[in-house]
Structures are given as structure tokens and as C-alpha cells.
Task: structure prediction
Amino acid sequence: MDRLWPRGLTREAANLDLWLKDIAPSEELRKWFGHDPAKWEEFKDRFFTELNGKAELIEAILEKSKAGDVILLYAAKDEVHNNAAAFKEYLDRKIETSR
Result:
């Protein structure tokens, strides 16, 4: 869920099916947020707006989810206020409204 590959982890060791770095928040949004919990709700609103413009990437992940679990990896230390948590909420809403 990050635009940058994590330090100390090779792609081979990660053994990922797919890395869609462009699904991550824009550099501008990431810097603005700075993992500040006080900005969490506004961060999600801005991130969700960005995600609405990435329909092809969202569809790729939704297709993967039909075949099994999708694991969202992130490097943030905060387990609640991070890109993956926001993205999961976004995907859950998409899945719920498509039913």
C-alpha cells in the first residue's frame, strides 16, 4: 500500500503476486498526512477521492479478491492510521455497494 518499496525486503523474499504502487496515496497527500491521527478523517476523504479516479486498479484488486484473500502490506508503524487501513475501508464500501 506504499508507493515506495520497503527497505531491507527484496521482491523475491516478499513473494507477491501484484504490487500496484500507483494505488497508494499521491506523494502530496502522503506528505500532508504525515501519519497524523488528527488528520485521519480528512486523509481518508482525500485518498478516497484519489481512488475514485483509479477504477482500473481498483477493479484489478477486486478481481483478485474473488479468487481468495487479498493481503495489503504497508510499512507504517501505526496499525490504525495508515494507507492499508484506509484502503481496506474503501474496498469494503465498494464491495458492500456492489451487492
Notes: Residues 40 and 87 are 13 Å apart (CA to CA). Residues 11-98 form one domain. The helical segments are 11-14, 27-33, 40-52, 55-67, 83-98. The first helix runs from residue 11 to 14.
